[in-house]
Predict the structure.
Amino acid sequence: MTDAATPAQTSSEIPPAKLRQVVAASSAGTIFEWYDFFVYAALASVLAPHFFAGLPDAQAFVFTLLTFAAGFIVRPIGALVFGKIGDSSGRKGAFLITITLMGVATFAIGLLPDANQIGIWAPILLLTCRVLQGFALGGEYGGAAIYVAEHAPHHRRGGATGWIQTSAAFGLLGALVAVLITRAVVGEENFRDWGWRIPFLISIGLLIVSVWIRLQLEESPAFQKLKEEGRLSQRAYHESFLQWRNLKIVLLALFAIMMAQGVVWYTASFYTQFYLERILKIDSQTVNLIMVATVALSAPLYLFFARLSDFVGRKPVMLGGMLLMLALYFPGYDFITRSGNPGLYAASHSTPAVVIADPADCTFQLDLTGGARQFSTSCDIAKGALANAGVSYTTRAGEPGSLARVRVGGEEIESVSAEGLALSEVRATRTAFEGRLREVLVRAGYPASAPGAMQGWSVAEVMRVFTEKFGVFAIMALFVIAATALYGPQAAALVELFPTRIRYTAMSLPYHIGTGWFGGLLPAIVFAINTATGQVNAGLWFPFVVTAIAATTCLLFLPETKDRDIHA
């Protein structure tokens, strides 16, 4: 593919004050939508017992992750629906609909009764709200990025759209801060009981403000020009996906940019949170503090790398982010483990755990459909208990028909079978075994939790914890640099790749497949691989391979687009 010629600006120059209004209004609405979507991720572990109370703990957690992912799965559908609206009827109307739908769905989550009140309808209604959120977000990002880009002069397009990129950081930061403040005000016990609803409920006020702001906007000049010339696309799907000259751009955007963006961004921003809490057993307040600090760091970096791409090009900045993350995946998480829970790291290397079991007794422990399987064999109970404890293990074949055993150092503990028992009895059996196993692990040097838990929110306590966990923050800061280098210039690069008449439809689909399927499914996929293999970092091969494919495609095939005329 070859670059377009360097253009003169073909649309009338937008006054700076007008451009600032466009950027501010578009970014404010996008911040609200990201807040709505991310507040669920911040509360995934809190929501699990409320909506999936009838499932085993580990399965309930994974089911909760998939409910989070369900919002991502439908995002490409929303991209197609709202993309067609945006290309045929206008950018402004499309993202007014998306923001309203997102706000209503988020507010509804805060009102849902839990499983103890309405049984199976609780997870069904929660899943419905997540689907509506994902459907709405599918049309939001493309509309906001395109709207800003079509107003900005070409030499400032990266910097202007960088504000749309950083809106994700502000949305995530807002979600984390809302959770932190609510936790501090109502207390941890009340928060887990009913206080978790508050961050969802306050979104109704944000919705009203965001809709009012967007109502003040006018249509983009590029769309207006097409409309006046009678050149609006009436067959956006056909032009985007059934004409090779455009389909190859869609595929290039997916394989050279969006696959990597999905796994890099969600590894840096979400899987790390699950890893710190579930694997390293760091207390939730400390995890929230670290996440707030890293997200705050990311906000100016999005703008920096977006603006940098106006000078050096989109491609070298994005490729640099991919290569940096490739270098960080495995050594980064290894260092996070050593710094975040050194006792766990030392014990896992000096006193590894071994599961000795009849292979016929072991099943794949991720029944993600929430079906009838309870993973009640002795092998399943043993492996599940180790996975819940954040302990890596290897498996050896035992005698046929024998109960599974767990060997840790010089001690060995026999597992139990709960096959044929009622759900409540299975849970009780599993809990009793986990208690006995925990005693063995502690004697072998495995800590029950990470050291240095937060005790309140005084300035001195925050500084103490942040100092003690600075190693974790330092690695996460490097993750953030990689993610922001890739994500910062991305909006401008995507807008520049596609022609104006099908830009909303064609651009939105690869974006939401990359972020929605590769990124949104990442926590569940990585957690599943870790549990299946018994190795806490084995799942990192998924984002590593995806990033490597994208980096290679970007290097070989992606053209530089920073000087393209997006109005042609």
The mean pLDDT is 82.
